[in-house]
């Protein structure tokens, strides 16, 4: 379905903002006041964002800020979710997208989860012809990025 990603993203962030009120987490939106048309399955992309944002909440300290961004590139948008949480060691960054992988079993056991969230998230992003990756500094925070191809309205008219 042809979806304007901007209001879609805002709605999902609104829901998190309502639900985690007591955890004192700030949501900083860096989202242009523009339309970004992408061809997505809304339910699947909701699952993608729920997984990424709930990790950011889960691994954030009290009073932490989560920064949610859309950046426009030529043929795609880059969506990112940055937190100020515990971070992930450099050599483990790629593994977090593997099934059942959890960075520090002792540390994360108490936080719950199966280690499937990001593996499913990667499959869903790739099914939309996007890519997903992570960047992190231990003790400083983590950023998850993913891309989605923009619908080329000009070319669609020519067909
Ligand atoms: P589930 O999502 O299935 O409930 P999970 O959150 O442990 O469980 P994933 O979402 O797949 O699993 O994440 C895999 C691992 O990557 C996590 O266990 C955690 O160690 C690490 N991780 C993911 N996101 C973050 C983050 N924002 N900050 C720090 N570590 C993270
Ligand atoms: Mg998770």
UniProtKB/TrEMBL annotation:
Residues 1-152 form the Histidine kinase domain. It is found in: Cell membrane. This is histidine kinase. It comes from Pseudogracilibacillus auburnensis. The lineage of its organism: Bacteria, Bacillati, Bacillota, Bacilli, Bacillales. The chain holds residues 457 to 615 of 615 of the full protein.
